């Protein structure tokens, strides 16, 4: 186990060096950036105490070392293997946990820690070969894959919207809409293998238009149940929900364009930083979307004619 | 017809393909042979437009990449996508309506299961089914027989002959000479990034002999078995 973590530390340092960052600088800068980011998040984002644990869960789910799962299972005993999985997730959750404790949000701290530990066991569940039916059959790819990996988020979001009616809290319902768009945008955080772009007999413009149309259609489809419930019970405030629908669509579109705009080194890192910045200041998307569109189109010309 | 003129490809100042000149006509099956690392896959990727290169590749019937069916050595499948959804995806990509996938499942694959859980041979068969459904004019098959069972190899052989009959251009690589003998009209021997020899069916044995003569026995002797 000690050797595993020594190697992990070395690998992280190598990755940082590849990105052109001296590890020692990164170890100082990352906590500072994390503190600044988290503080600003709580200052400027509505429902931050709901959204923050959700962000942590997705950070852990994305960064977790599932790719090495089979290797770890072969090399270590079941107990050590399980221990490594739990420990990895606890390490990932720890900085966020410290911040929540610092903010005196004790319930959220415990929730984040528990979710981190639970996620380490869910990795195994993600390997279950049960084929979950989805309404996205006609255009397979991001939404089918994403929905099968995160279907529980939709159950939670729909549950939250029902609770919002029961406790008479419109904002909680809007949070359900925001979380769905947020999850859908994450479906576009990893670039697909080259073959899956190349195979399209489309120009870059057609390809992007196709991706954007599908994403808008499917993400709106997923929020319809919440919007309908809110329309029935809070008709006078429905314009607020619709405004969040528009912002949500823009957010997803920006993520699609970013995926192809940053198709080289550090794709996920840049997307993450810009994604969080746009949560603080949504109007930035009006400037960023045209820029990313131009950049994505130019990158795609190497594979699409 | 595909015409390749003076194609060069290098990675980090190392030339992996040098002065490749080849032409492929409809209704012909071309085999490309050579040791691992000779440049076969790089050549295929250049023809299909996945890799940049110096030189010219001309195709007289439009945009070449939009009519190529490319079968990689190890096809990669996205996680949580079933075989049927994969076929839908590759058909959508070429704006082709997928009808009756059950009928077109010539390899009897479990199309309702996740493709990532398929065996090596099944993955290859799924990828091959995908490019056959796309109505391509050109087929580039990198090691189509590798990892596939005997019965399916026979099916693939028959499919290749059918493609020839349908006037398609087929370019494939294989390390199994007997299959090349059965299917190919021409063989191109690629060595260290250059076409060392191009022969028609009457001269296939000479390529095999040349490959054997290229120091294989001396290398085995070095093991002192």
TrEMBL record, chain A:
Transmembrane region(s): 20-38, 50-67, 79-99, 105-122, 143-166, 172-191, 212-232, 238-258, 270-294
Keywords: Membrane, Transmembrane, Transmembrane helix
Superkingdom as given in the UniProt entry: Bacteria
Name of the protein in its database record: Uncharacterized protein
Organism expressing this protein natively: Aquimarina aggregata
Automatic annotation (TrEMBL), chain B:
Highest taxon in the source lineage: Bacteria
Pfam families: ABC_tran (PF00005)
Domain ABC transporter intervals: 2-217
Swiss-Prot/TrEMBL keywords: ATP-binding, Nucleotide-binding, Transport
SMART domains in UniProt: AAA (SM00382)
A GO molecular function held by the record: ATP binding
Matching InterPro entries: AAA+_ATPase, ABC_transporter-like_ATP-bd, ABC_Transporter_VariousFunc, P-loop_NTPase
Protein name in UniProt: ABC transporter ATP-binding protein
